[in-house]
Specification:
10 strands, five-stranded mixed β-sheet, single chain, alpha/beta, about 325 residues
């Protein structure tokens, strides 16, 4: 593309989609692209990084066979980079593509945290993402971090959009067949997919007549049923709030920030939707655990955070940060 190398290739690769943006030295967005989900644990590292290449190629940022970097600094915030060895493998593969002179890989929750920090603030705070999955990170200016493995039930995680959908299905199935207490979920979940019972829904999902990708549609149904006062649905929403508070408060405690005025950044599709039954309970419960914490919900694309981290690495001037933030609203 002939782009000046005093620039950043910002990458935010999540389970459901991958965003890339090439930034000029002044923080301007020269071009941006998007591709599908980034899942190295399922596809392998090389195939997952191919998805980033697809996002770049979609807007002419990368042409197969090109030699030479397109940016000075690659700032990659990636889902499934949960352990140092995973970060190392992903960084090695991205470096092999020669997209930038310097490459840094972070877990994608760090992009959320960076995007949610106040303008000009030092890198100090905690972020919780609740989208398809759930994760939490924290950091302090002296380089200390707090993290969780965040790889599912075996690492103690509960919830996220996918987890909530599974829990809603579990309770609805038991309500219909008599093993559990009654809940409106038993009617609302199959009705959303054009079916007349949980038995029909279970069979359709098992036999593949309902695509697996449609399961995420059930999470908003859960929240709608909870908002109408259904006790079972509401209990799931409240448990999700309590899990988020637990992660945030533990991270704050590890960093010695429980009693300090500090930002707690919330993001991901579930939290960005601002369901009162969820977000209000988070605010109330977090106030008990960390009374001086300041909650901030981020709705800007996470690639903003990846770009800001890149500008940090280049020592960019303040105006560059303002221009980048303005672009992503």
């Amino acid at each position: 593309m002939g782009v000046t190398l005093c620039s950043v290739l910002a990458i935010d690769a999540g389970n459901s989609k991958t965003d890339v943006a090439l930034l000029g030295p002044d923080g301007s967005v020269l071009v941006s692209g998007q591709a599908g989900g980034f899942q190295p644990s399922r596809t392998g590292v090389a195939a997952a990084v191919d998805v980033i290449a697809e996002a770049m190629a979609s807007v002419g940022m990368y042409v197969r066979g090109e030699v030479g970097p397109c940016a000075e600094h690659v700032s990659a915030c990636l889902a499934n980079a949960d352990f140092p060895v995973e970060e190392w493998k992903l960084a090695r593969e991205i470096k092999r593509r020669n997209w930038g002179r310097v490459t840094e890989v972070h877990n994608d929750t760090f992009a959320l945290l960076r995007a949610g920090l106040p303008v000009g603030a030092e890198p100090r705070g905690v972020a919780v993402v609740c989208g398809a999955g759930i994760n939490c990170v924290g950091m302090t200016p002296d380089g200390r971090t707090a993290r969780f493995p965040a790889i599912g039930r075996i690492s103690g995680d509960w919830g996220g959009g996918s987890g909530l959908a599974d829990e809603a299905l579990w309770f609805a199935a038991r309500a219909e067949d008599g093993r559990g207490e009654p809940t409106e979920l038993a009617r609302a979940l199959p009705a959303h997919l054009g079916l007349d019972s949980m038995a029909s829904l279970i069979e359709a999902m098992h036999l593949g007549r309902v695509p697996a990708g449609r399961r995420h549609e059930l999470t908003p149904v859960l929240f709608a049923v909870a908002a109408a006062g259904d006790p079972v649905a509401l209990s799931l929403v409240h448990r999700q709030a309590d899990e988020i508070v637990a992660m945030a408060s533990v991270a704050l405690g590890r960093l010695g920030l429980l009693d300090e005025e500090v930002p707690v950044v919330l993001g991901g599709g579930v939290l960005a939707a601002r369901h009162p039954q969820l977000n209000d309970r988070i605010a109330a419960r977090l106030a008990d655990r960390a009374p001086r914490a300041r909650i901030h919900v981020v709705t800007a694309p996470p690639v903003l955070g990846a770009g800001l981290l890149g500008l940090d690495a280049l020592g960019s001037p303040p105006l560059a940060y303002g221009k980048l933030r303005a672009h992503f609203g």
